[in-house]
Amino acid sequence: MVERKSFFDKIGTITHLHLLPTSIGSLRKLSAQIIHFRNVNQASIDAWGLLGVYPVHPEIVSDAGLISCLIQQSLAHIPRTSGYIVFLMRSCDSARQPQLSQGALASIRDSLLSGLPQDSRVELLPDEIKKLLSLRIFMVRKVEGSRGLSAATGNRVFTNTDDDHPLPFLPDMQNVIYVDWKDSVTKALIGLVDFAVKVHDHFDLLQLAIDNWGIQSNERQDVWVEKFLDNWRKLPHHLRSKLEGLPLSPSSLISLYTGEVGKIPVGRFSNSDYLTIMQNLGFVRFSLDEFVVAERLAYLHSAAH
């Protein structure tokens, strides 16, 4: 024990040496450190191995005194310490993800969750944050309705609505990621990266749809109008005001709006039941009044220029 203590007292002078054996027989520099998957299931250990992360050799683990010294010197990292998450992000090769099955990805995210420290904050460098977000371990939703594990790179929009609630098209849609905030694992892992998250409820999503009405498809506009009508009495005042400014095409004057994008009612909302509701709410006009004439003249003038 005296010789071992003396060795660790002088370890700062030999950190460049390859003295840390891994489970596959390779050696790591002392300065590179190593992982000890203490109490981690084999499925997770195997999954990390596919990403190039190999734990300390079993013979080192079997020497309780030695592995304890390595941990105390921060040469080996164990779950529930801040160094554990940092080491995994620094050491894993996210480009190897195509080798991972859905089950392996689930094991990766479960092991990250169970390995989070309880009483300290994990400080990740920008490259480590980028790598974490590139892992397909976050629950996300697609505009078309699907839900599943994916990376969380890009413009993250956090939602806590039901899975069947529509999502609006947004500008630069190819970089928009709808992150499902109902998923507890995703919430915990995002907490390593985003410290001030704005979570969107169904009213916030309605707001986004209104603000980006012109890029919603006709089918998507149908869905949103149905949501507006179903929730009309619950809508905040500012949303009601914005709805009143949407371009609504009077069905009896439809010929004046032929070919103009973004005018409603169309599809099933042009039937008499929906038209009656929208007329009563003040959404549509049914006669050629002063407002319609002025609005059409302004539109034709702008189109000519």
Characterization of the model:
- This protein is α/β, with parallel strands linked by helices and 305 residues long.
- 41% of the residues lie in helices and 10% in strands.
- It is built from 13 helices and 9 strands.
- Helix 2 crosses helix 6.
- It is elongated and about 90 Å long.
Topology:
Blueprint: H1 2-9, E1 18-21, E2 27-29, E3 34-35, H2 42-50, H3 58-62, H4 64-72, E4 76-77, H5 82-91, H6 102-114, H7 126-134, E5 138-141, E6 147-150, E7 155-159, E8 176-180, H8 184-190, E9 199-200, H9 202-211, H10 218-230, H11 237-244, H12 272-280, H13 290-304
Parallel strand pairs: 3-4, 7-8, 7-9
Antiparallel strand pairs: 1-2, 5-6, 5-8
Helix pairs in contact: 2-6
Overall form: elongated
Radius of gyration: 29 Å
Q: What is the helix tally?
A: 13
Give the structural class: alpha/beta
Give the oligomer, counting copies of the same chain as homo and different chains as hetero. single chain
Give the helix proportion (percent range).
Answer: 40-55%
